[in-house]
Amino acid sequence: MKDTPLSNCERDFILKAIEEKKRLDGRQTYDFRQIKITFGTDYGCCFVDLGKTRVMAQVSCELVAPKESRPNEGIMFFNIELSPMASPAFEQGRQSELSVKLNRQLERCLRNSKCIDTESLCVVAGEKVWQIRVDVSMLNNDGNLMDAASVAAITALCHFRRPDVGIQGDEVTVYSPEERDPIPLSIYHMPISVSFSFFQQGTFLLVDPCEREERVMDGLLMIAMNKHREICSIQSSGGIMLLKEQVMRCSKIAAVKVSEITELISKALLNDKTARKAGGRCGFAESMPQERITALKMDETPVEMSDATERANDIVEKAEAPSRTVPSPLVPAPGVGQVGQGQQNSWGLQEEDDGEDDDEDDDEDQNDMETEPQEKNKGTGDVVEISDSEEEEVVILHPNTSDKAKNSTSHQKGAAASKKRQKK
Which residues does residue 234 pair with via DSSP β-bridges, in sequence order? Predict the structure, then answer.
């Protein structure tokens, strides 16, 4: 299913607003949307809300054979799933161009930047290593999926704990969390992606574009950077030509945003660690009393209610007292009636129907009076039978038999007269 395209009027409105340095959600040019980080009940599960864009990252691990080229290093695997629940434009079970693009960018951002010590994932050189798998699922799409995915993936990796392993000869024993405490991953730095959208061939620049702004943009620049101002990856798409000054300007903006997001991630991890040590509710169990299980909730607008009672009393005092008498109902035209409290129902249509019924009854009485003497007269003549049906009276006549009787009597009279003449 394809997504609903933007109309020309809406496209022109968005571009005109960007020219006037205004955005649809009221942000400034370099403002990020509100970022919210929550964790699941298990280690390695992270939810990130970037405005209305919602992403979930889940980290898992298993023992596998290493690659022949790198027998002493573990394996990192990333997978981004674009669910139809996030947007009607995403199809289930089919890898689109966008998902391939996001997968490659996430691999450059996290794996190629060497942010994780892969050698620490080796259990037995050349035989057993840990394979770390990061599954990122898009729950709701409102633009800038790459930034939300990078924040969710690196936060889930920092939150993840792998099982402890014991080696005795050729045997490898994996201990459960009850037997030994899980071990966190060795992470050197946290690369985070920051997206910049360009409009009108690079004339205007916006940070963290939303979904509608992405539809009308001419080009996109993604910069992955850590808090030490080291660029981990950079990618430009859209076929737009950027100047050196524009790229340097974007890198300076990205450095400020990355430091703020890194601090937010560190605080979220510390709060979750403190809650788990204290034995309080955390993750999914902590979200139940606050009714945050569903995806989004509506923000309430504060309303000033301090002088509401006084204003209401003033309005009541100044208002005119309602009349106690109820006006009589009026029928302006036939077929129109009034129904209300304290009023009688009056329908002009019913009155007309009653009058028509009375007229019909009078006509039927007159017809009955006229037909009675006729039936009496017919009874003395050639009437054969009259049915007793309640619905209608049926009179059956035999005009042929009466005519034959008259002809036979006249013929007999003529024959008798001729005989008398002959005798004379």
Answer: 223
